[in-house]
Amino acid sequence: LMLIFWELTSLVSFLLISFWTHKQDARRGARMALAVTGGGGLALFAGILLIGHIVGSYELDDVLAAGDLIKAHALYPVALTLVLLGAFTKSAQFPFHFWLPHAMQAPTPVSAYLHSATMVKAGIFLMARLYPALAGTEQWFYMVSFTGMATLLLGAYVAMFKHDLKGLLAYSTVSHLGLITLLFGMGTKLAAVAGVFHVINHATFKASLFMAAGIIDHETGTRDMRRINGLWRFMPHTATLAMVAASSMAGVPLLNGFLSKEMFFAESLQLNLPGLWAWLPPVVATLAGIFAVAYSARFIHDVFFNGKPVDLPIYPPHEPPRYMKIPVEILVFACVMVGIFPAFSVGPLLYAAASATLGGDVPDYHLSVTHGFNLPLLMSFMAFFGGLLMYSQRQRFFDFHARFREIDEKAVFEAVVSRITAWAHALTGRIENGSLQRYALLLVVSIVAVAAAPLFDLGLFVGSRGLTPVDWPTGLAAAALMLCALATARFHRDRFYALILLSVVGLIVALAFARFSAPDLAMTQLSVEVVTIVLLMLSLYYMPSWTPLATSTPKRIRDIVIALVAGTGMTLVTLAMLTQPFTSISEFFLANSKTGGGGTNVVNVILVDFRGFDTLGEITVLAIAALGIYAMLKDTALTPPPGDGMGHAWSRDAYPVLLRQIARPMLPLALMVSVYIFLRGHNQPGGGFIAGLITSVALLLQYIASGMVWTQDRVPFKYHNVIGLGLLFAVIAGAGSLAFGYPFLTSSFGYITWPVVGKFEVASAMIFDLGVYLTVIGATLLALVSIGRLSPHSAIKSRREDV
Amino acid sequence: MLDRLRFPQPWLSLILFITWQLLSDQVSAGSLVLGFVLAWAIPQMTGGFWPERPAFIKSWRMPGYLLRVLTDIVVASFQVARLIVSGRQPRPAFVSYPLQLEHPLAISILASTISLTPGTVSADISDDNKTLLVHALDAETDQEVIDAIRTRYEKPLLEMFQ
Amino acid sequence: MNHWLTAPILIPLLGGILQVFMGYAPLSLRRTLALTTTVLMLVAAVVLLVLANDGSYRFYAFGNWQPPFGIVLVLDRLAALMLILTAILGLFCHLFAVGGADAGNRQFHALFLFQLMGLNIAFLTGDLFNLFVAFEVLLIASYGLLMHGGGTARTVPGLHYVVLNLVGSAVFLISVGMIYSVTGTLNMADLALKVPQITGENLSIVKAGGMMLLVVFALKAAIIPLCFWLPKAYARATAPVAALFAVMTKVGIYAILRVYLLVFGDDAGALANLGMDWLFPLALVTLAMGVIGALGADNLKTLVAWQVIISVGTLLAPVALGSVAGTSAALFYLLSTTWTVAGLFLVADLIASQRGSAADKIVTAPIMRHRTFLSVLFLIGAVAAVGLPPLGGFFAKLLILQSVSPGPEMAWLWSSILIGSFFSVIAYSRAGSIVFWRTVEGHINEPPTLGGSVSVAAGALVAQSLVLVVLAGPVSSYTDATAAQLHNPAGYLQALGTPMVTEDN
Amino acid sequence: MITTVLYITTGMVTLAALLNVYRLFRGPDAPDRILALDTLYINAIALIILLGLILDTRLYLPSALLIAVMGFVGTVAMAKYLKRGSVIE
Amino acid sequence: MNPIAEYVICALLLLGGVFTLVGAIGLARLPDFFTRLHGPTKATTLGVGAIMLSSVIFFSTRNEGIGISEILITVFLFMTAPVSANILAKAAMHLRVKSSDNTRGQPWEQ
Amino acid sequence: MELVFALVIGTLTSAGVYLLLRARTFPVVVGLTLISYGVNLFLFGTGRLATGAEPVLRHGATYTDPIPQALVLTAIVIGFAMTAFVVVLSLRNLADNDDDHVDGHQSAPTTEVEHNREIPGQ
Ligand code: NA
Ligand code: NA
Questions:
Q1: Nearest to B122 among E45, E69, E86 (CB)
Q2: Which residue in the set A31, A420, A446 is minimally distant from C226, CB to CB?
Q3: Which residues in D44-69 are b (16+ Cβ under 10 Å) and which e?
């Protein structure tokens, strides 16, 4: 749960920083802050999950109790690094410190609250809370303390050279956070107490300084210390408050800053690092102290003294209204109180916080104004004078500092992000280049690759059923089919020729279906074949009549190889499959077709009864395809090429006499045939699909022979409605059984005997087949007539009434 | 009203009736009744698609004409077969045949007959339906082709359609 | 044998047929009828959800034929989950479409309803070939919907989408053929019984068939390397269509879950967990590709389109690992990401409509109207999509991360998901800040006013991530039960024993 | 006796079909190819009838009838494309 | 199956086969398109007609009713063959397909 | 017989796949049709090859498996609907982008590759 609020804070800070949206660097700062803290949050998220995994529960007290279990666990180092990553990014430790100063763009109250007191402290708070669970190991010591040291030094050093008031305070915050982290890193109980103590102190004086900076900004209109000088005269009261707070920051005795800094110095001495390293922490501490004093001195002197203010936007600055100063006064008063009577004022609070952190056993420590004259006191004096000395020589330090190019982290971050996005854009552009060739290639290759392994160990396999001999007409027909298929691929550039070859292939496939005892299939294939030819001819009119060579030769060879591999794969599988023994659920259908379905043509009974739902889906596909085609071509304008690309213009005569005359009788005859095939469908090869296709072809012949307008006037119905009616019939045929409590699509059939005619069968499946019949007609004609309407001549005339 | 119910196109209904018997393979009571119903119903629906119906006068002569055409087809096939088998170079010719028939259906029947019967294919009909372009496979003189068509086919059709 | 099972199929079918007849009726009438159909479908989905929640399987044999001979519908928790997901998504997309996107094509609502019908058949059918027919129904409807709307921008990606799926359908048929040639049956329960007993050369035939089927579902789910058609196709589709398509990729994943846990599950003998070892690395690479794509996106719709691919990767990784917890986490994430992505598509469209010529391009542009409202929607959507707390996306990712047991997979899974989220934070924050904040003075010609229905639809879909947080408890317990049910297919096999309706009862 | 004759006839018709395919490949112009295709359709009718005779079943007759009707419309569509371009206008 | 019917069927079958083959040979060997047009319209059509007739007799003499739907197929063929020949010829003339040199007369300009 | 059947399916698939990978919509559509022929034959083959065993009930006959025939019939009709849609879509593509390129570089200026385009047909 804690994690949620953790992420929430990073989110809120993102919004707040970017409060002043119009300023460009505010946005960038905000994004950077979100990215770093967000990223850290995710690492913490993983860390906590890991710990939860090790301990087995996420309850805080279980985790704290299982401290040694965690430390001993193999995943401990990973978990620790992740958690620390989260803590360091949140509390702006080195190397993740760069986002904090830029968060300063946020309006004053935000930065005061957010960046000095609480949010940034969350990282520290996290370390404090998990201290008993994670601290104490070598890894904890090295990672935490060294990071702390680095941040401490870096923050303090850079703070010195920041001309912006808030910049200085920001980097000083970074430095102090480093200090606290270092304290926690030391591993001793006392250091932890010191850490907690400094957290409290830092919060107080830093908040007051931020508010002071806010007041100065409010009063003078700027925060550039080079222009703000000698404010003492203008706002003595605020000045004094600020100076006290600043000196507490510097660690001047009698103020809270001094106490925790002194404890810090004491702890840095206790660290018993092996050999030479022993000297490192105290030296670093003092150095940091020097820097701290230096920038505090700068804050006091450069702002309130140091001559006249230079072209302030608001001049003369004067004391801010009373209400603005009250919070600063309270905080400064607290600094002084803690400084003078530490045990009395902050003792109990410190004790409670420390015990929470250390899980109860708080070492005895002594809070007093001074601990007498000892080495830490000496170190703070050295820091004090060193700092003043450094400040006085600040000019030389400024030149020294100026030599480093001022790196603006925001610009770096933005550059990195835009380079990533540019790279990503380029990469996606290259991979997803919008070439169907490539996508199709990827798809085919993946299919072949996936099927290669099993087919490879299948190899050329002939099952136990063995091969049956080939009678030579079938062999010749197969050879012709293969020849034409390869010729289609070879001559696909001459489009008309390719289509003729394609029709030959289709014809032989239909013959193959007849040859291997599938009359229904043969008829369906033939009908669909012809309607496809008409469809392709309709569209070829608008296409250039041949395809220029577009792909380079090596690519074509590659495609040929892939095609051959795919082909051999299919051959191997088919051979193996055809020769394997086979038992299937087909006995049921053969047995129940007559008794249960009421028809002897088992394939048709399966289509309209046993698996009627498939057919319902199928005619819906037909209907949708037609509607989609109609919608796509509705207001598309296509200008056909003047001739057939071989140098002949299109001839004027559209409707030859002989064709028109033959079309007249063909329609009724064809209708007779389709009624015949429809009625016999249930018991003999035939059925709704084939009958529907025959009627469609008969009507198509009228369109071809006499043209769109002539035929359209004679067709009384709209094809949309035919499709709708067809689907409706199919659904009604299926739903009829619901009335009797039977499942959807249950068919019923009976026999009626009339005096003259004798016995004939009436089946609900007949209505279903009628639905199929109507949908096929409606869909086929709507699709093909929509293409027909594209042609310039009919487009104009038929604007009036729609199909 | 009644006659509309009767047979708008009597010949077409008859052909359809016979077709239905052919389709259902055996002439049973059921096929007769259904054949009758369909033969009546379908012309109603497709009436519009056959606007300029010819006025048959002597339609009973049609079977005789068909029989003649059939025998000629058989004869023609043997002639063409002999020509193809002999490998002799044929002497093809385009012949423009002046038509005397007016009705488009009559012209179509004539053109079909020409295509089906010996050595000739009707390649095209002029826009004004006045002349018929015939391609003869192997003919000495154009006039020979024209006379054969005139006497054997156009005359009976003229009688039927005039 | 409960007729309610056919409701999610018959309602859109009848609604669609009605729309076909009423092509020329006034638009407002057609819209109300279409919307009532979608609402009815939602009611049916809820009823089925309640029914399925008792953990038992319900079967419905079409034509009263005993499975495995006839086609059977199977209602279990997974099916009910997908139905409710599609019904809610469909309702809001439809609400958005009614706001104006359905102009220009009289048959838009028919296509929309048929699309929903196709989806519902796919989720309910218990027959492999019927699954193929269901795929064809929803594919052809999606082709029509993808091409809906004027303009020439969507033709080329549409063509890619159609051709690739045609190849996919051909391969689907080949796989069904291969499997049928050995097992001799099409009913999935029957297949689950027969697959373990396959021996000898038949094994390699069915293995090849099974793997090719996986490629088909991978194409549907847009797993790398078969995902590159998706960004342009979804980015260029009209908004409600793109939003509805958010569930299209999930159909592929549903199919993988259904077929590969039932037929090629743990106890499938030599063919157990077919292809799952391929799936895990591919899922992670898909995730990475999605993130790269999102980073490189130059407009919001492309960004959201790549987010679809990211969610596919994130979704498939735990499924591929095959643990019950993983599947449950994946299902939870499936709910959250589908609605979120759909919502983002709608929001992106609203933004595009408000920014004049700049549309949804991630460039500087004059300030848009309704900026605060839209930016809040975008923020919620982005946070949910990336998986930052406190929204649904976070919980989903949390569940996924927890579902994996320590080991190399855990390392890979965690790093890719977390790093992926990190970069998507960057991508979304960059896009959001540029679109909403990097503004320049200038005038946008009269942006259309935000219609009520349009903003409600977009808002609702985005708001679901909040709802998911509140209902996290019950939803995750439902997904746990679903995952448990999926992982022991014994219940499903009762399909073969479905009682037939005889004269007496 | 009939069966042997049937096989001989089937052989002859198959050879005829092959010759058609030859013409289809060689045919210098498109009309030659359509003519070859149309004849192929007619040969297919013969083959189907012969198949029915060999198998002694009448199930394939409607298929033959279908080829007769459909083949014609296909040829007309192709020829009209060659001449007029737009098949339906 | 009485012997007379058998002989008639065999004769018709052989006749049909020969004619179909001759039609195809004509198509293959004749010099130009227009001459080739004659082959199929006559020979092949008659060939298929003969096979159709043999099928009629074959099925009618098997005492299960008469099999006459083949006749319809022949009728359709005889109706459609000339039309397809006509429209093919028109297309060829439109494309100015050259007829062999010793052809008297010229095709019309389309 | 089975070997010939398998070779036919293999050839159809190879020709279809080659055409599928071409750079224009027309060959792609033709390729898809060839592939669907191959697939339909394959699906039909799963019921194993049989001569004269039509699944139409008549006394004293053996029957082949009717299921694949029903499936193929459905596949043919669906295939037709899909082919019609993809053909019309390529027409729409022609209308919108007035060239039928599908290999990414829309109507690029005629590259040197296209200069040596063969004479069609021969
Ligand atoms: Na100054
Ligand atoms: Na003649």
A1: E86
A2: A446
A3: bbbbbbbbbbbbebbbbbbbbbbbbb
State ipTM.
0.94
List, in sequence order, every residue forming a beta bridge with B136; answer none if it has no partner. B93, B120
Cα A130 from Cα A123, distance rounded (Å): 11
Record the tokens describing residue A456, joined without a space.
């490879």
Touching partners of B (3+ C-beta pairs < 8 Å): A, E
Helix (H) or strand (E) holding A760: strand A758-763
3-state SS, residue F7: helix
Contact C215 A450 (CB under 8 A): yes
Contact assignment for E87 to D35 by CB distance below 8 Å: no
CB A622 within 8 A of CB C141: no
Tens digits of residue pLDDT in A142-188: 777 777 777 777 777 777 777 777 777 777 777 777 777 777 777 67
Residues of A with CB below 8 A from D24's CB? 500-501, 504
| B108 with A661: Cβ contact below 8 A | yes
d(C-alpha C457, C-alpha C344), whole Å = 11
| Among candidate residues A434, A789, A796, A499, the one with its CA nearest the CA of residue A632 | A789
Lowest mean pLDDT among A37-51, A787-801, C385-399, C403-417: A787-801
Residues of D in contact with E80 (CB under 8 A): 68-69, 71-72
Nearest to D46 by CA among D76, D20, D77, D73: D20
Closest CA to C92 of C247, C309, C234: C247
Which residues of chain C make contact with A447, given a CB cutoff of 8 A? 171, 212, 215
What would the pLDDT profile of C271-282 be if each residue is shown by its tens digit? 888 888 889 999
Please state, in angstroms and as integers, the Cα–Cα distance from residue A323 to each residue in A21, A222, C44, following that order: 28, 21, 64
Q: Which letter does DSSP use for residue F109 in this model? A: -
Highest mean pLDDT among A299-313, A324-338, D54-68 belongs to D54-68
* Contacts of A among chains (3+ CB pairs under 8 A): B, C, D, E, F
Distance A226 CA to ligand 1 centre (A): 4
Average pLDDT over residues A761-777: 91
Please tell me if residue C129 touches chain F, with a CB cutoff of 8 Å.
yes
Q: Are C386 and C421 in contact (CB under 8 A)?
A: yes
For C129, which of F28, F40, F71 is closest by C-beta distance?
F71
Residue A306 Cα, ligand 1 centroid: separation in angstroms?
6
Chain A hits for C211, CB-CB cut-off 8 Å, are 450-451, 453-454
Half-sphere exposure of C277 (CA within 13 A, CB side): 4
- Cβ of D64 within 8 Å of Cβ of E70? The answer is yes
* E69/B26 Cα distance (integer angstroms): 9
Amino acid identity, residue A485? Answer: A
Q: Which are the contacts of F115, defined by CB distance < 8 A and separation ≥ 6?
A: none
Q: What's the count of helices (H) and strands (E) in chain B, helices before strands?
A: 7, 3
Nearest C-alpha of chain E: how many angstroms from A728? 34
8 Å CB contact between A266 and A188: no
DSSP state letter for A573 = H
pLDDT tens, residue by residue, A348-372 = 777 777 776 666 666 666 666 666 6
* CA–CA dist A505, A455 (Å, integer): 27
**pTM reported for the whole predicted model:** 0.89
What percent of chain B is predicted at pLDDT more than 70? Answer: 91
CA within 13 Å, CB half, A72: 5
Contact A664, A655 (CB under 8 A): no
Q: What is the 3-state secondary structure (H, E, C) of E68-107?
A: CHHHHHHHHHHHHHHHHHHHHHHHHHHCCCCCCCCCECCC
Q: Which residue has the tokens 């009958």?
A: A691
Q: Do A662 and E110 touch (CB under 8 A)?
A: no
**Are A617 and C137 contacting, i.e. CB atoms less than 8 angstroms apart?**
yes
